[in-house]
Structures are given as structure tokens and as C-alpha cells.
Amino acid sequence: MNSQDVILGLLHRRPLTGYEIKNTFERPLSFFFDAGFGTIYPTLAKLESLGYILKESVEQDNRPNKNVYAITEAGRARFKAYLESPMEKDTYRSDFLIRLFFAHYQDRETLIEWIREEIAAAEAEYRALQDGMPDWEPQMTRAQLLCAQIGIASSEAKLRVLREGLAEIERSSEP
Amino acid sequence: MNSQDVILGLLHRRPLTGYEIKNTFERPLSFFFDAGFGTIYPTLAKLESLGYILKESVEQDNRPNKNVYAITEAGRARFKAYLESPMEKDTYRSDFLIRLFFAHYQDRETLIEWIREEIAAAEAEYRALQDGMPDWEPQMTRAQLLCAQIGIASSEAKLRVLREGLAEIERSSEP
DNA sequence: AAGGTCATGTAAGTGGTTACATGATTCT
DNA sequence: AGAATCATGTAACCACTTACATGACCTT
């Protein structure tokens, strides 16, 4: 799974510009995949050179011209091949957890700050997901709903453990 | 946060060979960070060239010679600088969630198979964490315990949602 | 006047994966 | 006899990030 596959998936529904693809990544897809312009534009160029998508230049008034990309039959086949390939295992990369792992080389205050920061980040994500749900839900498939529910449930679980852990650390060895 | 930082963190406790570092990544650290030999050896070479670690060749009987790497003062300073740098936000990369997002381009049987696979993977991880805990717990710091608890709680939450979702999908549109 | 939106791209670099290459010893 | 353990490394490649470069229009 890589940006090529995901972009091909997005173009399945309708032709899009690089800029629109970037916006699609904002919400709610961004919770489990993201890409910047520095990835999107080179990837579109590559997909075009491979014959998976076709570029159409569209002139606009009062706006910069845009390149709209549409998926080809070869592109659909490529995407299907991805869906049929063996599933890759999930990876969770967390600077926070690595810091926790080595926290005994730092002072207690820093540890507490890290946990507070992580709680704030998890709360923000949790709220963004919950607040967005009413907007997205009507147009989401059942499987997409599952995606969102997994995100929400994981955030909840993480927050619960983090809050308990923080309370315990704050209680202990305090004057 | 990258392999350099993590390896420097591991060498804080005692000098290690590349092979030992790889083993350390197995359990329990591997749940939130992993690296293969193709990353470890070049990283060790780089860290040495930067003066953060020192190599000592040790001859062994009946075994290949090994290179034991010890952290230097500059290495400790480097690691401290990492711990004091701004915390990076977590990234969760999931082929499974991407597939769920595009599941409507596949048939129902495949969707069910994906979910079953993901449940099996999450169960395996959950069990590995739970089974390992009694062994690791005595030598773990409180912060490391928190790491493990977050992993366990997230797996639980994910499993719960996945099982409910699977049941619902199996119920619906079934003969 | 400042900041946001629409719009596209390149260049250089980082960081990591995969496959290859070797080989003795010990356990089952 | 075969698999696992101990042990180290390189080369080619891939994917992605960051910074740079440009510029008009619209909203506050």
C-alpha cells in the first residue's frame, strides 16, 4: 500500500486535481493516511507515465489553470490488483511511546508534560472524529463507518489509560 | 525520532552488538518500533562516524567475531537533545483501514476475510503483549508499563469494534 | 494590509526496505 | 539431515519529506 494505490482509489469515483486530492486527505481519510503536495504531484506524474491515469488541462477564469486526472482501464486493473494483493500489517509509529520507553533518562516534569501533550493531541483527534461524524455519516459506506469507529474507540482507550497513568504519576513521589 | 535516536537510547544502558540490538527490538519494544539488519548496521556505522558511539571488535571461540558498540559522551548529549526536541505526532499506517475505506469496490466475501484477518492479527498481538507482561513487568519502569497498557487497551478496543462490525456485516444481506 | 484559497511543480536529501552474500556451530 | 542461532555487512532501490519557487484572487 502506498500513495499510488490510494490516489488510484480516490480517482475511481471521479476525476480530481492534485489540489482536490490534498483536500480529500484532510478529513476523514487523513486519520489513517496523509500525503503532502511533494508526494501528490510526483505520484500523479508517475501514474500518468505508467498509463494508469490521464491528464486533462482545464483553463479557468480568475484562477490558475488546473490539471484534472481521470483513471484509465489500466488504472482500475492496477487498483484491483492492489486490493487482491496480500494485506500488509499495520504499523504504529509513535515518538511518544519511544519517549515513554526511555523516560527514566529524563526528569519527572518532562514525563508529565509529554503525557499531557499526548492527551491533548488524542483529545483533539477524538473530538475531530466525533464532530465530523454527523457530516460524513450520510455518505459513508458501512465499512467506512467501521474505520471511523475503530479510530474513535482506539482514541478513547488510549485516553483512558493515559489519564489514569498521569494521575498515578502525579500522586506518587509528590511532596 | 528515527533509528539513530532509538539505538542511542538502547546503548545508554550497556554496549551492544548489532545482533543484540535486533533481538532487543523483538519484544516488547517491537510493538511500537522495529528495524531490520539493513537499517541497524548502516545506522551503527553512521553513528560511529559521527562520534556518538565507539566500536570494539571482540574475538570469540567457535563463533564469528562481533563488534560491540558503546555510547560516547557526545552520543549521550545527542540523545538528550532528541529527548528535548519537540515531540512528533503519532502516525498510524494501516493497509487494513485503507482497504475498508475502499471496500465497496470489492465483494462482500473479501471484506469479511479482511476483517477476520485483522481480528486474528490483533488477537495475536494482544496475546503476545499479555503473555509477555509477567516476564517483563519486574524490570520495567512505570512509564514502560504505561506503554504496554496503551498497546493492550488499544488492541482490546480495536478487537471489540471489529468483532461487532463483522457480526453486523455477516447478519446483513445474508440468505 | 494580511491572511486564506486556489493552483502546480522541482530539487535535494533522508530514511528505510529488500535482496544478496557468507559461514561456523549447535540443537532437534 | 535440517533448522535455528550467532554474526556482519553491501548495493540497489523506493517512498517520502522539506524547502524552494510562483502568483492571482478574495475575504476580513
Give structural attributes.
homodimer; 175 residues; Arc Repressor Mutant, subunit A; 2 domains; two-stranded antiparallel ribbon; 62% helix; DNA-binding
Order of helices and strands of chain A: HHHEEHEHHH
Query: Any idea what the CATH architecture of the largest domain in chain A is?
Result: Orthogonal Bundle
* Whole-angstrom Rg of chain A: 21 Å
Per CATH, the class of the largest domain in chain A reads Mainly Alpha
CATH topology of the largest domain in chain A: Arc Repressor Mutant, subunit A
Span between termini of chain A = 51 Å
Structural class of chain A: mainly alpha
Q: What is the mean pLDDT of chain A?
A: 93
**Dominant shape of chain A:** elongated
Number of strands of chain A: 3
Strand content of chain A: 5-15%
Percent range of helical residues of chain A:
55-70%
Q: Count helical runs of chain A.
A: 7
Kindly report the oligomeric state of this protein: homodimer
Largest sheet composition of chain A? 2 strands, antiparallel
Tally of individual domains of chain A: 2
* CATH homolog superfamily of the largest domain in chain A: Winged helix-like DNA-binding domain superfamily/Winged helix DNA-binding domain
Largest interface, Cβ cutoff 8 Å: A-B, 59 and 59 residues
**Unreliable parts of chain A:** none
